[in-house]
From TrEMBL, chains A, B:
One of its GO terms (molecular function) is DNA binding. Residues 45-105 form the HTH tetR-type domain. This is AcrR family transcriptional regulator. Keywords: DNA-binding, Transcription, Transcription regulation. InterPro entries: Homeodomain-like_sf, HTH_TetR, Tet_transcr_reg_TetR-rel_C_sf, TetR_C. PROSITE patterns: HTH_TETR_2. Coiled coil: none annotated.
Length: 236, 236
DNA sequence: TCATGAATATACCAATTGGTATAAACATAT
DNA sequence: ATATGTTTATACCAATTGGTATATTCATGA
């Protein structure tokens, strides 16, 4: 099985729930099978989620071509029959894994954004997210968007398309925040939303890349400080 | 052979020289064999260079795991016997290909740097390089450092080490330029060399990533303009 | 021109690749 | 408790993987 647990909980419904080290997802052991603890879910759907959760980091680290079906069966403890019973092919697993990786980040950022009241706080919410979660991102193999984009640009059009839309939606979100700020008078009128969004994304992605490649967190942290300064410079 | 030519030259020494479309490297056809036009080179060394030149872009685009021996023989028109006669294994070809890709960029940047007289011109030389050569870099599959780093971080330690040193040497070069400027009074005294170098690299790499992923050059060009502004802000 | 070492092609290898047909095991509603 | 559809394991497939031994071809100095 090869699963590392960090917590065990008792429930009256399903007995013991094992929390996995990675991502803190609730799994439980029922008879001899592992499930993700979501009631009302079909078994196949739970197995699907299990496969995705167990392989998401592998795809993020090794890339599509570098991840084999043997990696997938090894990480899940399932056989090829189970994998192909739930996914059409390796392609489908990879796409689902990317969606999972991206979704985890998106969800957490979104939560942080909802508490933000103005432009400054919204932009700062991103910075705070990366300040808090960069160790997890590093463990997970780096930014899924960067990885998927540079992994698939030539070889895997479907995955590249997913990565491209993910990046676009992040960029559009930043642009919207700044445009809204321009309308509300919370952002200095000479700021160009697109250019700022590109600098914003570059400082984050570049910081992750340099930090991961040189094996030190400092470049990312210093980039995030720079980003804070730049945010303060454009808001009123 | 699958080689696209853009120019043909006559020489009295070796007959016809065919300039390849990619990288403008001089190859020539002698009898039935192709060579890189470097006199005094052993045949094996020329074949080695030929293999490297023909596969460099493929490795940059497809990554190590995504590039097969069949890709290599297909791109060169040589058989596996020839490849393994000149390289120990696929690993060795990949490492040489990365060194080639990185070397091409390094060489061109270095040429631009030699004409620069002060800190501003030195930093601007980098910007000019990317402004001039970004179409070539895109055709070539993006920045080799970013590609190699994100491709090999988990799967291929030897290649990752190469990518890591390449990034480090780029970063150190930027830091040296700024430190020199601080000593000469050409840079404002409150500038932190490392932090500036990280922002510098991030704007370039991030710009390439966004541009390539979204399929438009604008983000890179706008980042380079931002970089120019930031350079002007730190020099005296 | 020819002998000799260097370079390349050919034919092969075991292992692994992604994928499938089918049989077994399973969960669950009745 | 059992019947039934769902899910998973087993056993297999052709194709491809990286790599090698050996035969052939080639380049070149004498």
């Amino acid at each position: 099985m090869n699963i590392l647990m960090i917590a065990i909980k008792q429930t009256h419904l399903f007995g013991t729930i094992f929390f996995l080290e990675q991502r803190n997802l609730p799994y439980f052991c029922f008879y001899t099978n592992w499930y993700i603890f979501v009631r009302g879910m079909k078994k196949s759907e739970r197995t699907k989620q299990f496969i995705i959760a167990q392989t998401a980091a592998i795809f993020n680290k090794k890339g599509f071509a570098g991840t084999s079906m043997a990696d997938i069966t090894g990480a899940t403890g399932l056989t090829k029959g189970a994998i192909y019973g739930n996914f059409a092919n390796k392609d489908a697993v990879a796409l689902a894994a990317f969606a999972f990786n991206y979704g985890q980040i998106r969800k957490t950022v979104h939560t942080g954004l909802q508490q933000a009241k103005n432009t400054r706080e919204k932009l700062m919410a991103y910075v705070s997210f990366y300040k808090e979660y960069y160790p997890t991102i590093f463990e997970w193999g780096g930014c899924p968007i960067l990885n998927a984009a540079s992994d698939s640009d030539d070889a895997h059009p479907a995955l590249f398309e997913k990565a491209s839309s993910a990046l676009e939606s992040w960029r559009n979100n930043l642009i919207s925040i700044i445009e809204e700020g321009l309308d509300n008078g919370q952002v200095k009128p000479d700021v160009e939303p697109e250019a700022f969004a590109d600098v914003f994304i570059s400082l984050v992605e570049g910081g992750i890349l340099i930090a991961k490649t040189l094996g030190t967190e400092k470049p990312l942290l210093s980039n995030l400080e720079q980003l804070k300064t730049q945010i303060e410079q454009i808001v009123i």
